[in-house]
Amino acid sequence: MSFGIIFMGLVIGFMVGLTGVGGAALLTPILILIGINPSIAVGTDLFYNSITKLFGSIQHWRQKTINLKLVKYLAIGSIPSAVMAVGVLHFFDSYFHNQESVIKHALGYVLILVALSTLFKTFMKNKNKWNHLQIRPLEEKRALTIGLGALLGFIVGLTSIGSGSLFALAMIFLYRLSPSELVGTDIAHAFFLVTAAGIIHAGFGNVDYFLMLNLLTGSIPGVIIGSTLSSKFPEKPLRTIMAIIILISGFKLI
What percent of the chain is helix, strand and coil (3-state, nearest 5)? Predict the structure, then answer.
């Protein structure tokens, strides 16, 4: 057991429970900055996220807060695209031997995007009026939904980041979902996406299972503690601080 990694998992889990900011955006850059190989950091984070999203998906399934048709269309685009992204990384490693550089730079830019999207969601004013895209039936937006899944799925396969934050932001603007349905659909789709990408990374030997178990040992109680205390702290300042930390991490990796 590595108590340093367990403690790091505890802190990250606590912050995720407290702020709702995605764990991957915190975990992957920290792993890289402490010396973990970037491809191992991405693969391990995807596997780690798969386990955590599974429990969230089961809970939302019981609550009937998952839009299964939206999950299906997003997954049709995102899963093949994420698998392709892992293949692209392997290609760069085989022919150009610069896989780690590609991951670090891509990760840096995606972290900046996630930080900005987090800030936008935090300070976005709630509107009661739906826009014209939200009102249109899902069947009319099938191609758009599959294309969106493909674009963001490639980013997730490449960096392990965005399965929650970027998809959630897109769903806010494109689909007419209640807050609980938005969260449930986002988590359920993220489970399928990160599981598929994680399996492919594992096939290439990019998952450190011992590291993952240590992180889970710390993060599970951390999330529970953070979620319990979240109602006692102001949401906007905490999310803003986390977004700034993620933004700084992004610039460090570029």
Answer: 85, 0, 15
